[in-house]
Design a protein that fits this description.
By secondary structure, the protein is an alpha/beta fold. Helix content is 45%, strand content 15%. Strands 8-17-16-9-15-10 form a six-stranded parallel beta sheet. Strands 20-21-22-23-24-25 form a six-stranded mixed beta sheet, with helices on both faces. Strands 1-7-6-2-3 form a five-stranded parallel beta sheet. Strand 18 and strand 19 form a beta hairpin. Helix 9 packs across helix 10 and helix 13 packs across helix 14. The radius of gyration is 38 Å and the shape is elongated. The chain starts with a strand and ends in a 5-residue tail after the last helix.
Length: 868
């Protein structure tokens, strides 16, 4: 094979290009680039029309040649399997083998075995090599490969990896199908399998030449950065400046980790350019990650009749289903209600007798889909499942009723092509279940990398391999630190390591990776007039240096680039701001007949922050409830309140508590828990085992607490869960007192149950009370009440915490540091003032403790406490 060095595509390639020549490239992007250059070349010659030469990727040329050769055969050619069909066969062979008993990730193992098969064919390895019998994994792969070969022979199939070998045999009888000249352009290396094919072409008197573009007078520089973010931003700024200086210049921005860092790179480039139509980002995304396809796959999962609340919310609020626009508010309301009810698993046909509006929405949502899935047969062909999936999506109104934007339209076209490919698996498969078909469809969507079409640009953001060989005026290669470049060797686990080392197979050894990367660097240096190689000294948590492959390149400091001053679009908007300050700390006063819900929490919020009280109680601004795997702290507290209320309704006093036996007390607690079960029917169906364990834990807490109640002086229960009305200024508060005990002298002790540990009597002191509830209750009946106390029922830390007028002989209840009546007067003044401020519409942003109060507040975007 002849190696030819050229300096100019137009003069040395296009001018002398024969009509029957074929230019072969390693990828589609390089082929498209050469087509574009050829068109410009013809336009410069003022030609109106011309014959387009054959410029195609090597694998496409081999496939075309295979079918062309078949036209001259007496017998039909074997069926050429699609990649999806081959992948399915390998996965099914592994599923049916003994390997399946030991694998945790069958699909990933199938992909790895298929990669080994590709290497086996490309490097002309024989399965009969004795080393394949040296280790269990090698033997397993040999058996799988043998099974696949037998399947292909039995059914008259052939896969793309075996195609070059078979083509060599066919070409001997049809040499006229070959072009007179075969030009290889942009190849870093050729596998032995392709070399054999090209050698055969030469033996048939075909001219095979490998072109290497080396631009004259090239310059190369190496640049160091402190952080990778700065590196990406600088490359974007450099590309923008170069483009503005010369709009016709071709600029390549190469990132080795483009596939994994695509979003971060796109964000930085868009921030610098202000729009994304000035550069082309080559890395596509898996089809399954595009929102419209993600929604489709999640809709198809609804056949399970159960789905996580998070996924269901994504579907419910998606714009890609029926009535999404018309019902967006009612669906948002249903989603909020699901969160409020702490529903973590959504069940179709819940059957709950007392359904909330959210559960009714769920049943209505599932109804059309269930009507179809109920009549499905258990096994169907892939083609039939494709029709079923389409029917299911249609009944759910996918892809929605609004007009699709260009990217969404292209994505749906890609989805339809995927379904067409999905149907072809029937050639190699028997009928399967719904779950098996959907699982493979999801895998195909994940493996299908899709990139929407975009206008041609002069700035290309590329991965390392697809950029190699492309001609640029300027190219910048990033991420060349000594940790990641060259990459660590990753030999295939299914091919003997010795064979991989001896044959220098891809990724087999560190030396192989070093040599390959060295060739890449040289190719980049020669294919552009100006090339930059950069690295950052921090790669995640690792300290890095320049890769050994670029240390010989002359260094260039960042200041020598002479980049123009740069501001992000955010900074530009911020700098051009015109600020108008408006102080608005007061809302409308509360009308005399206006009622505000919230009870004592109104006073508590007013003490924490006046704006928070106004926003939550007057504007009804509130964050969404978070769904938790089990009971929320609030739910647990309410349940314990209810059980203790029921227990004391039956016991009445301490004397009865002391008189009953331990077994009788356990029975009483169990009965009270059953009577006061606060779980709705839907929750019981979702997590019965968890509820049982939670009840056991709560029963233990209540037993431990009752032991503490036994140790205090005699008392009787005066009231439990007492609903009452308090009046502060002209603010009426609806309240509920957990418990009031009557002491032996006839005085009262007010108790508030707390299930947390952060309870302290100092929360009742100071000018802004953290916990005003018990002081308010006390003031309502101060002549008879002699103490207030938290009953802390936290696991492992149960105790009373309170204040009393005189000693009550209860551990944890103390005397105040000041006179009791002075304390009452102080509370009266403070609480009345808080109520008065709320009634007057005081809404200033004034948190009691900014760090503590604002940390968990959900209203920061509304109050803008930080001035942003």
């Amino acid at each position: 094979m002849e190696l030819k060095i050229i300096n100019n595509l137009e003069i040395e390639l296009f001018t002398s290009l024969a009509e029957s020549a074929a230019i072969l490239t390693p990828n589609r992007r390089l082929a498209a680039t050469l087509h574009s250059h050829y068109q410009l070349f013809k336009q410069k010659q003022n030609e109106i029309s011309w014959q387009t030469p054959e410029i195609v990727p090597l694998n496409r040329w081999i496939e075309r040649l295979w079918f062309e050769v078949g036209c001259y055969q007496d017998t039909p050619l074997p069926l050429l399997l699609k990649p999806s069909q081959v992948a399915y066969l390998w996965e099914q062979n592994i599923r049916q083998s003994k390997l399946n008993h030991y694998l945790l990730q069958l699909s990933e193992t199938a992909d790895c075995a298929l990669s080994a098969w590709k290497l086996l064919k490309q490097w002309q390895l024989s399965l009969n090599h004795p080393l394949f019998n040296s280790f269990e994994d090698y033997r397993a792969f040999r058996d799988l490969a043998t099974t696949f070969e037998e399947q292909c022979k039995q059914h008259h199939w052939i896969d793309a990896d075996s195609l070059p070998d078979q083509l060599c045999e066919k070409l001997k009888h049809a040499p006229h199908c070959l072009p007179t000249e075969i030009i290889l352009f942009g190849f870093t290396e050729l596998s032995p399998q392709i070399q054999n094919l090209l050698t055969l072409c030469e033996e048939m008197n075909k001219h095979v030449v490998k072109l290497q573009l080396i631009k004259p007078n090239t310059q190369s520089f190496a640049i160091e950065f402190q952080k990778s973010d700065t590196e990406i931003e600088t490359i974007a700024r450099f590309a923008k400046q170069k483009h503005e200086a010369d709009p016709n210049a071709t600029i390549g921005c190469v990132f080795p980790q483009l596939a994994t860092e695509r979003d971060r790179i796109k964000q930085q480039f868009t921030a610098v350019f202000g729009e994304d139509n000035l550069f082309n980002l080559s890395a596509g995304q898996p089809l399954s990650e595009y929102p419209v396809i993600y929604t489709a796959l999640k809709l198809l999962e609804l056949n399970k009749k159960t789905i996580s609340r998070e996924v269901f919310s994504e579907i419910l609020l998606s714009p890609f289903i029926r009535d999404a626009e018309r019902e967006r508010f009612s669906r948002a309301k249903a989603d909020r209600e699901l969160k409020k009810e702490n529903i973590s698993i959504v069940i179709a046909r819940s059957g709950a007798k007392k359904q909330s509006s959210a559960l009714k929405t769920l049943d209505c949502f599932f109804a059309p889909l269930l009507a179809i899935t109920d009549r499905l047969t258990s096994h169907q062909t892939f083609g039939e499942w494709a029709e079923t999936f389409t029917e299911l999506l249609t009944c759910m109104g996918w892809p929605g009723e609004r007009s699709l934007v260009s990217i969404e339209y292209q994505t749906i076209e890609a989805w339809l092509n995927l379904l067409t490919d999905f149907r072809t698996i029937d050639y190699v498969s028997k009928p399967v279940t719904y779950e098996a078909a959907l699982t493979y469809l999801k895998k195909m969507a994940k493996n299908s990398i899709f990139q929407p079409k975009s206008p041609e640009t002069r700035i290309q953001v590329l991965g390392q391999l697809e950029a190699a060989g492309l001609p640029f005026d300027t190219v910048w290669i990033a991420g060349l630190d000594d940790v990641t470049f060259p990459p660590i060797a990753k030999p295939n686990p299914f091919i003997p390591k010795k064979l991989q080392r001896d044959l220098h197979m891809p990724h087999a050894t560190a030396l192989r990776e070093l040599n390959f990367c060295a060739d890449l660097i040289q190719q980049f240096k020669e294919s552009a007039s100006q090339s930059f190689f950069s690295y950052s000294v921090k790669n995640e948590e690792n300290d890095c240096e320049a890769s050994s492959l670029i240390r010989h390149i002359p260094p260039l400091s960042l200041s020598e680039l002479k980049l123009a001053d740069y501001q992000t679009s955010f900074d530009c908007v911020y700098q051009s701001r015109k600020v108008e300050t408006l102080t608005d700390n007061k809302g409308p006063a509360l009308a005399l007949d206006e009622k505000v819900k919230g009870g004592v929490s109104i006073i508590k919020l007013q003490a924490l922050c006046p704006f928070k009280a106004f926003a939550e109680k007057r504007l009804h601004a509130k964050g969404f409830d978070e769904v938790t795997p089990g009971m929320r702290a609030r739910e647990r507290g309410e349940y314990i309140h209810q059980v203790l209320d029921s227990v004391w309704q039956k016991l009445k006093n301490q004397a009865t508590l002391l008189a009953i036996s331990a077994s009788e007390l356990n029975t009483l607690i169990s009965e009270c828990m059953s009577e006061t079960l606060s779980w709705n029917e839907y929750s019981l169906k979702q997590r019965p085992h968890y509820i049982q364990l939670e009840q056991q834990r709560i029963a233990s807490i209540i037993r431990d607490w009752l032991e503490i109640e036994k140790q205090r002086p005699d008392f009787k229960i005066k009231h439990t869960e007492l609903s009452t009305t308090l009046q502060l200024n002209h603010l009426t508060l609806e309240t509920r007192i957990d418990r009031i005990d009557e002491l032996p002298d006839g005085s009262m002790l007010i108790i508030d149950y707390k299930t947390g540990k952060l309870n302290n009597i100092y929360q009742w002191l100071g000018e802004r009370l953290d916990e005003p509830q018990l002081p308010l209750y006390l003031l309502e009946n101060s002549h008879q009440t002699v103490g207030i106390a938290f009953a802390q029922l936290a696991t492992g830390d149960q105790t009373f915490k309170g204040l009393s007028q005189y000693t009550l002989d209860i551990q944890g209840i103390k005397l105040p540091n000041t006179d009791w009546h002075s304390l009452l007067n102080q509370w009266q003044t403070i609480l009345t003032k808080l109520a008065e401020d709320f009634c007057n519409g005081d809404a200033q942003v004034d948190p009691k403790d900014k760090e503590e109060t604002c940390q968990w507040c959900e209203l920061k975007p509304l109050c803008r406490v930080n001035g942003i």
